[in-house]
Amino acid sequence: MQPTVSGFVLSGGNSSRFGSNKMFHRINGTCMGIVVFNNMKNAVDGDVCFLGPVIDHQDFSPFSQFSGKREGQGPLGALCDALESAITDVVVFAPCDTPGFLHTHFQQLIAASTRFDVVVASDDAPPHLRHLLLSCWNVEATRQHMAKAFASGERAIHRAISGLNVGDQRYEDAVLMNINTPADEQ
Asked: pLDDT category, 168, cuts 50, 70, 90?
């Protein structure tokens, strides 16, 4: 039986390197955050929402938003909030600045999730850097583990996943590229 899947696009962060809120940066006329949202939505059967502070922008008004009790406490806090609120078997995550990660890439993460607690997108070339916020999580296997790590004071996802069965799904660098400055889009 196929797992039910929902998704969260991480909308937090200060966009300090970008110079303005990167969620609103337009790619082919569409806000970058919405591009990522649509790519994810085309890969999952459940709901997709933006996770983080409320986005007060007209282009985002039709989209679901979620802000949990750990809002403002970093990516691990956001991840714990999402896992805690999930009503699906699997949850996928993506930062708002990864527009090159298409629905087919999300589908690959989801397909691999049947073999692991967490599947993380990673570079196809050594040293195979993991992109921990571009990932797929089995809710039942990870919810309590991650909440316990957060409650213990841990704030680094790469340390919090210790003890979980983590798999890597490899992608070309261009697919994983974060748009951190306007020049990165070139």
From this structure: very high
Query: Quick one: which of 73, 101, 88 has its CA closest to 9?
Result: 101
| Number of neighbours of residue 81 by Cβ within 10 angstroms | 22
SS3 78: helix
* CB distance 80 to 147 below 8 Å: yes
Cite the DSSP H helix spans in 59-160: 74-85, 103-112, 139-151, 157-160
Pick the CATH number of 5-185 from 3.90.550.10, 3.40.50.1910, 3.90.78.10, 1.10.3720.10: 3.90.550.10
Q: What is the pLDDT of residues 102-122, one digit of tens each?
A: 999 999 999 999 999 999 999
Distance separating alpha carbons of residues 43 and 5, to the nearest angstrom: 9
